[in-house]
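seq:
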Amino acid sequence: MPQRELDITVVVNGQPSEVDVNPEAPLHTVIPKALAQTGNVGQPPENWELRDVSGTLLDLNREISAFGFTDETRLFLNLKAGIGG
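struct:
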């Protein structure tokens, strides 16, 4: 049975955005959606990194379902160190 879509909150530079994600997709698929929804289009998706609430850097190539996220999950998307400025 396929898993249902998840709505996780991705905080982009302090701005929260609800992102619909496919649990079977790799985590990196969340980044372009969150950037588009928050209007952050100045940097390409590969210049960003995702962290959980404890600040742990997440492996973008892992399947979303492997993290055990729920609809209450909050992730933080920030520019990688040394980019932007």
